[in-house]
Fold:
Amino acid sequence: MSGLPLLTLMLVVPLVGAAVVWLLPATSSRLAKPIALATSLLTLALALVAWARFDNGGDRYQLTETHSWIPQFGVSYALGVDGIALSLIVMATILTPICLLAAWNDLGEDADPQREKTYFALMLVLLTFMVGVFAARDVFLFYVFFEAMLIPVYFLIGLFGGPRRQYAAVKFILFSLVGGLIMLVAVIALYFYGPGGEQGFLYESLEGQVGGSTAAQRWMFLGFFIAFAIKAPMWPVHTWLPDAAAESRPATAVLLVGVLDKVGTFGMLRFCLGFFPEASKWATPVVITLAVISVIYGALLAIGSRDIMRLIAFTSISHFGFIVMGIFAMTSTAGAGSALYMVNHGFATAGLFLLAGFLIARHGSQRIADYGGWQRVTPVLAGSFLVAGLSSLALPGLSSYVSEFLVLAGTFQRYKWAAAIATVGIVLAALYILLTYQRVFTGPRPTFVEGSEPRDLGLREKLVIAPIIASFILLGFYPKPVLDLVNPAVEQTLQLVGATDPAPTHATGSAQ
Amino acid sequence: MTAALMPSIAPMAFEAVKVDYAAVAPMLIVVGTALVGVLVEAFAPRLARHTIQVGLTLVGLIAAFVVLVLISVNHHAVTLGGSLAIDGPALFLQGTLLIFAILGVLTMSERFGGRSADAFTPMGAATPGSPAEAAAERAGFATSEAFPLTLFAVFGMLMFVASNDLITMFVALEVLSLPLYVLTGLARRRRLLSQEASLKYFLLGAFSSAFFLFGAALLYGYAGSSDLGAIAAAIRAGNSAYEGLLLPGVVLALIGLLFKVGAVPFHSWTPDAYQGAPTPVTGFMAAATKVAAFGAILRLAYVGVEASRLEWRLGVAAIAVLTMVVGAVLSVTQTDMKRLLAYSSIAHAGFILVGVLAFDSTGVSGVLFYLVAYGLATIAAFAIIALVRSGGSEATHLSQWAGLGRKHPVIAGIFVLLLLAFAGIPLTSGFTAKFAAFAPAVAHGGLAGILMVVVGVLASAVTAFVYFRLIVLMYFTEPTGDDVVALTPSIASTIAITVGAVGTVILGVVPGPVLQLAEDVSKFLL
Structure:
């Protein structure tokens, strides 16, 4: 892959954009938001070019760039993507402009311009790290992005969040740091059990090459897995997510839950399965059990939530349970389903969070009980919310259905009990989505003070929500482009694990 | 050279030792400048003294550094009758010390528009609050002897990291410590606290020196020589008549050195001395004393008593674990910025010890790198603390820092960067340093090494909580009092802060060259 270093460009462009936005002189502060949006769109364009250049039948890692960075530690500045990483990068670059647009008036019309510039600059910095963490092809570089990513999120929550933002920000950073530091021990150990040398942290050097005793491999697996389980998040280390999501701005919550948390499941697939196949198989029963608990527990807590943002966070915990289950089922159907689910979930969560955000912006409350009958006031908002909710509960024809079905079908081939219990999660999903819709949008028309009736979605908000709803339908009826993209990567990962499908599958068939 | 390594215990006739002047030139320059500084103190007019002293000190330190980099690096030698070993680690640490000293002197010279250094009292000997003190203030007295004192301390440190026998090491320890005791007591504000800190530091320091001396005596009894090479040879031969003296000797000598780095349970002086000392002195002391003491620990452990390490390694590992845990946990409860950084420095000493105990050349280079990274960030952090004022005195209480990010975005931003480095967040020097110190422990330290690293990362998480709470305070909290301001630093402080901040970023983003240098010099000359 010669020519432009596309991935590096995708790292540099948002960073430059962030610097420009942040350093804009006070006289031209109005330009901050358009520049931020333009930067994110440019990054999206680069991501689409990268997708166009990606050859589904080609090498495992493509668009590669490799430069020596810290040879003393065996660290390279190495980028490259497989299908899964690329699909997540494309998702992140699509969601970022949407979030910027959704956050357009987050700070109010007469906000302090410096504060507004900081807000948008931080989101662009976050974009760089989001692309970087998926595009890294070196474990150390991945770790750097994994940890550095926390800083912009920390400030986004702490500076711009809700009333309990300090608590939420500190809780978020502590959970993440503990996970990250445990992983650091595993990262250090990985180098010494791997082939070593000046490129000892490259994925290619490590995949299938990690030595050491069975016990050492299991410890390293745990080091990585705990960090990713916190990130994903899985029960019982999920408690930071509802707080962080409820206290952050909707746009931040989308990037946090929709994209950043994917690093957890992405890491399980890439590192846990790729580097420690034996240990992964050893841990599978426990992981699958935890995943099933997450599915049910997240759904139950979502049903019990009184705060709409917390509710969406809990639904994500449930959905992450499905993704993890699909990854550790180690069948090609479930793997493809999980990879697709990561993308679908990003859009579904974005829809729910952003629409909830629009709702909250109109009424100023996150409590579900404060609403009712809003369908009659804001019909477009209500309709959009219903579509996003239906996608989230995996209605056939909408995107999540395909991925959830693949995950369950693939898991059923190997762990019938897990798939059976997880299916209950779908029923519960119907409950939490439809109950919420009923409580918020149906019922008698609410009364408002004369002249202060909330308006329905404006043009900007429609622009925000249209691409998301389009993605539901597109990926629901025609998931082939994404499946074609992720399938080779899933196959290769499963080959590393040495897992063979117990029964004929259909996902691979559809990919050809 | 072998003759120089094994000096006969009782020379028959007096014989002048050979001196490799090129190798020791930086030390001579520093001590020479210090002596000139004393003369300046005696003869220069009072009003010009500050300027002359600062200029002279900086010129001396920079000259020493230039000589070190241009000449001494090519003169690896064991010289002065085997008492000094100018080798890779020694030169690296001496260079580091000189840079820290330059930065430290730059911050100490801060006047904030006054006539003399802002940090130092006009008259150290006056009773706090007495008429004599007020009169000294009015008369424009100034303790500009702080600068020659600093130079003497630097001289001791340069000698400490190169000392190749226990007697030289002890002399260096005293030469570096005594000026620091005095400097600690010279704070302009909160005089009583400063004097108390000075006395505490002195008493505990003297105590630990006694430990070291006793250990040195026992080792002399064991090996028949105080030379580190001779001790190493005696341990390897294993035929000493007094085998029982070895372990107590090693333990006592190590205690003396561990006191200087502030390892638990020998750490109790650290918070008091850090809090009481003039803030720029604290920064210099924190950075440079750690470099010097870890240099001496490395030399004693790797050159002298390495062969017996199995007997004492676990004990020191326990100290490292204790240091990390106590330093991290107690930093959570601190309400004073300087005490907080003192406990954080204790935790960092624990992290560095993890690297020391790897017993591999990669461990040495990791420790060297860590010392550079930590020192740069520390000097800059204390320089910033010196800027934050409330009603004329330093606002070191945490609550006074609330909302500082809103009022002084640049100062607070740099401080956050330094905090992120202390927390070990990637892309800052702190992360690279932790990686450099922990990786050898995992690779060569066996199970104990891995356990220490696990404790280390958990302690890091605790300290990170402290730092992030500070960021919450500075950025997410409304300011309480409106009288807290950050003074505008002079060009000298600005240079020190900038070097610290830029170094922190460079060592985080492109650490390759410095890591390579640390790796190249990590072999001791023996």
Summary: Residues 332-363 of chain A form the longest helix (32 residues). The beta strands of chain A are 62-70, 75-81. The mean pLDDT of chain A is 85. The CA atoms of residues 183 and 453 of chain A lie 51 Å apart.
